Fold this sequence. Notes:
Elements: H1 2-22, E1 25-32, E2 35-42, E3 53-59, H2 77-81, H3 83-88, E4 92-97, E5 107-110, E6 117-120, H4 128-141, E7 146-156, H5 158-169, E8 176-180, E9 199-203, H6 212-223, E10 229-233, H7 241-245, H8 250-255
Parallel strand pairs: 3-4, 3-7, 7-8, 9-10
Antiparallel strand pairs: 1-2, 2-4, 5-6
Amino acid sequence: MKKQLTFILMCLACAMVSAQWQSKYEAEMLIDGNDTLRYRIMYPKNFKEDGNYPVVLFLHGAGERGNDNEKQLWNGGKLFATDYLQERYPAIVIFPQCPRDSYWASVDVDRSSYPINLDFKYNQGPTKPLEMVMDLLESTIEEPYTKDDQVYLMGLSMGGMGTFELLSRKPETFAAAIPICGGGESESVSVYAKNTPLWVFHGAQDNVVHPLQSVEMVSALLKAGVHPKFTIYDFANHNSWDPAFAEPDLLPWLFSHKKKTTSE
Length: 264
């Protein structure tokens, strides 16, 4: 009985710790006609309307789609929400949630075999969720308390695909970006290659999104004359975000970048 009680108390303690960091993200909604984009947003500690803060946009993977406005925090939410990181990198962090029946990227996904087959179709325009993410980001950047030269983009899996596409649709916006186990239209990199430093991650053993998807994007960036950081983990399968989040230089690298001005 005592062991059972101890186990229950440990579970409750873990749940309280989890709820503590998750509660730092406020639940919000953006409504456009019949469409709703649910998102969570975390403001810096001691946030001030007359402050000046970087903005981080994080796009989740396909498994976190839905309408609960919670699952999108599963992978990456805690990365920014610890007290230490909030103090070292005070920022406005946004985690939108893609509806279950949609996708961040304009892509046909064939799951009849694995790794999945991806046919990107940027020429069809952005999906409605990505379009609403762009609207949300634009309205956030327009606020007087944000630094428009320190807007950052991250995403994993489906969100890594969304990251590459969003870079092509808003090539002048982001100071740096981190796509993890994603992919995209390699022809599109020319519009943002020289504007936005990238750190690309993938697992060499990924059996969901083939690592060649990232290799092709990095190859296109190299051909465009830039030198992205590229980390491929020999031991990692699809969840290469776990070792990526553990990289000690990840956030220092991200926040070290500022968007270049036209005069630079």
